[in-house]
Amino acid sequence: MSDQSNKYAIVFGSLNMDLVATVPRLPLPGETILGDRLLTIPGGKGANQAVALAKLGVPTAIVGRVGADSFGTALCEQLATAGVEITAIASDDSVASGVALIAVDTQGENQIIVIPGANGQVGQPDLDRLISRLPQANFLLLQLEIPLAAVGAAAQAAHQQGVQVVLDPAPVRAPLPLDLYPLVDILTPNAIEASQLAGFPVTDQKSAIAAAQTLCDRGVQTVIVTLGGAGIVWATAAGTIGQLAAYPVTAIDTVAAGDAFNGGLVAALVDGLPLETALRWGMAAGALATTQVGAQASLPDRAAVQTLLDSVR
Prior knowledge:
Elements: E1 9-12, E2 16-22, E3 37-43, H1 45-55, E4 60-67, H2 70-82, E5 89-92, E6 98-104, E7 110-115, H3 124-133, E8 139-142, H4 148-160, E9 164-167, E10 186-187, H5 191-198, H6 205-217, E11 222-226, E12 232-236, E13 241-244, H7 257-270, H8 275-289, H9 302-311
Parallel strand pairs: 1-4, 1-8, 2-6, 4-5, 8-9, 9-10, 10-11
Antiparallel strand pairs: 2-3, 6-7, 11-12, 12-13
């Protein structure tokens, strides 16, 4: 059982270099359009969530894998600069670092293609490095940009040691193994992911609550469905349901908004705040991330989140 007096989070997940093209609008299938600019920005859902936590003041380590290339070096340097512990990142000379190709339009909507690279090679050696750190942690954050078998093994190890498991099921892989759900304390799908996992369309708050309850029935303790501008809904295994409206901001780029939400949520839970307060922290962090371009560069610090929360009380 981990020492819950600790305030330490581990992220087990992906590190990617994001190649971001800003465009007037997203292209149709088979269409070529002219973009405005190309940005090279450190990303990957695992790395983004680690930076989100570190910027919110949570001691955070990331366990993952990069290629032995210039992108890998830059990714690790950016994480270290943000205050993330990087000693458990492996450098793999057999494969390139992961890359995400992202198009972002003037409304902040995006299309993303992820090429896993080294992330796809995450396996037992990486799990070993993770397991050795679990006794010092009280939260483990997982996503689905690394092999699903590794995600399941990590969730099992954390569950056995009493570490809270938070799974962001993106990119969604449906169906997930049924034995994974009972290992997850908090599941944070967006509407599309919730639809695919639950097996029916999520189009509004009512259907989102139904999806959350369906996923709780599979063994998850708390399911939070993020609905963008429509806010969030949640359900718990104990039968609690709720919903919160989104914070009003001018969105210019939704990349990493979900990662910011997870970071804000867990940062508040690490501090011992109740679930609904933690959800507001997650929503504020996610909203602020949409007001800036890029992944890690858009993630807010604690002061910015607190200011937004104070402004809407």
